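[09:14] KT: can someone run the structure on this one? pasting the chain below
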Amino acid sequence: MLFTACSLISVSAGAQSAILEGERFHPTTGEHGMVATSHYLASQIAHDVMENGGNAVDAAVTAGFALAVAQPRSGNIGGGGFMLISDENSGDVVAIDYREKAPAAATETMFQNADGEVVPERSRFTHNAAGVPGTVAGLSLALERYGTLTLADALAPAIKLADDGFIIPPRFAEGLEQSQDRLKQWDSTRKVFYKPDGSLYHAGERFRQPELAATLRRIAELGPREFYEGETAQLIADEMAAHGGLMSAEDLAAYHPSIREPVHGRYRGYDVYAMSPPSSGGAHIVQILNILEGYDIHAMGFNSARTIHLMSEAMKRAYADRAEYLGDTDFVDVPLEGIVSKDYANELRDGIDLERATPSQEIAAGDPLPYESNETTHFSIADDSGLAVSNTYTLNFSYGSGIVVDGAGFLLNNEMDDFSAKTGTPNAYGLIGGEANRIEPEKRMLSSMTPTIVQKDGKNFLVTGSPGGSRIITTTLQVVMNVIDHGMNIQSAVSAPRIHHQWLPDEIRVEDGISPDTLALLEAMGHTVSQQDAMGAAQSIRIEDDGTFTGGADPRRSTSSALGL
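[09:31] RB: done, structure tokens below
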């Protein structure tokens, strides 16, 4: 079914503006707050936290730990991510970087053989694929600084969920089946994800995780450093030592999250805040918006051939810069101020032909960097005290490395594959690595995760983000554009068909729902168009002028849920 013009009716400022008759997609509404996550159990838990007096940060941290139980393929305590927090009362927008780090013993050539050739499996499905996890430290820091709950209170629902178990939904069972070849390789993993008789769990069965419950209970009782210096840390170190892994007890003890200043841009009178490096997301969503601000996107129309042409041309130029410049700013100089400047956007816009596609090889020299898989998790939460939280975290692949820490019950990430194993050699997604993202001890690998908060006149207006690898940036971009340029309600903005261009390969990727006539016009302009699977899962919130909260749960994930208060 095509996404037709009737879904593009502009929303008014009235209390019920988002549910006007004639809209095809209707958001969830709330008077006091909104939760939008990728799993209904986490949404309900976070909703209950705020209903019982907790703020948006309390709810976000509780949801983050709950997702580690209910959605182990992507929710995690064995991975890492980024959180953006906006406080209208103080005017502060802060970014918490809890991305994983390379172990101190990591080397630039650790995933190469004696001949200098990359051995892909080493960075993906071995113990050395895991970076030092950051989730427990990052969520705990957010709670300590901006929440009101104790860590024990925030962990209580996740502990109960792991102890009591939950009924497996179809998506969970499908994920187990799709990943069974990797999951069955390790005794510790089979113990968690296979039944005692050796068969897989199926939809409708109850799934319990007693070892994970015990780990979470230790953290609740002893604090976040238990994960990094206590029994859990020792279990991780023992797991590594038993299988030739480089991560040590010292690496875990040395891990700390960082508070960073988010990237800030202005788009058509709105303030856009998004994640700073080592995420590439904030830099390039602002860069693309800066380029597009020079065009009347609204007049050109939603997903018209001209609009998609200009979006893809702007995307190409941003992703070319990503390959050349982006990395961990603790290790490399990133020209961030230049990338997000309006003057630079003007220069790039001058090189765009309104009628013809620019071949990617003519835009810049360089190659794309590695990026995350689809199995990342994003959630957005906002309350009526002026707090808003946008959080994206991941294990990288679905189920990460596939390795469960024996005795601890959680999966290890395989984020080391997000580094450049060797300049010029493709990663798991066929993309080429660059020098700025080479492996170095204690360095954070480059990411595309883009938690984003948009403000209007100093007030929180839009909270969004998505999973989806390199498509995270363009998915988040389109939610912002759909609201600001096309006047969509938040559910329409999230549900609408998406497009993506990442410079190389030189093609526009499109979802189902865009007119064949439009695709033909794009091809006539010189674009290569590739229709593929759905992209992203942008759990999002819009706050109306009267303070009403509207939530959009992305239908691309069957377990997505938005709940209002």
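[09:33] KT: thanks! The longest strand covers residues 80-87.
[09:34] RB: yep, looked fine to me
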